[in-house]
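Cross-check.
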Amino acid sequence: MRGFRARDADRDASVELIEAAYVDGQLNPADRDLRVGRALAAETLDELQSLTRDLQRPQGQVQPVMPSRPPSRLSSGSRRVGGVLVGLVVFVALVVAGVTGIVALFFFASSGGEVATSTGVPSASAAPEVSVEEVEAPTFEMTARQVRGFLRAYEEQFGTLEAHQAGFYPTRVGVMVPVRGSRPRMERWSWTGEWRQDTEASRVIGPDGIVDLGTLDVGRMFANIDTARRTLDVERGTLTHVLVNRWFDDRAEVNIYIGNQFDESGYLSTTPSGDVVRAYPYDG
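Predicted model, tokenized:
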């Protein structure tokens, strides 16, 4: 898998394995937090495999699915045959287009009117232009205004502000949404300005406590993001993500992760109201 780019699904699968290994007693809290931060910032499958290679898979944990190798390229002979066929098709198309154009001009000149399609609808050239803004999909950016907009959308979509975990990334939010029942169940959803359900209901792996996203002080969270950038000793560090969760019966935490292109990272842990609990600067 060397050189393959990692997808969001690959990163999420690796995070699930790391969190399951933590629950299984294979990792201590600091190692778990460090691996989760690097997994979420990983760019290639090699990076993800290096973070999970030494972990035993707890019973019931499914191995992350990696993409298959791309199909082999065509031989030079196949390319030559393909090139000949493409050239022949283009030649025929040009001939047909030329004949069609001559016929159309003849009828246009004889009728003195507008050329119409067989259904009587004017040709596509007369259709009004559609601006790019009218067809662009909704987008999310990690700003205070858009985080507040996400919280409103979450409550409207699910009728609650409770979640097992919320992960805020530069261009999306990933949420573990509780499913009511006798046992802990959750669904994974993503918000990019619109909702997408990523998984069906499954057992909760990782933090199974419930956090009230309504207690999140968004203004202080962004102030703490600035503090983390300045104090965690990550050279030219930028925000990779913010995780809001609650491990079992412990208090809810807001973990702010800062990283850079050299795979150096650190994180700042705060309460939802913005009080700093602890800091883990980059230690070299």
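Residues 144-280 form one domain. The helical segments are 8-23, 29-41, 45-52, 76-111, 132-135, 144-158, 218-231. Passed to J.P. for a second look.
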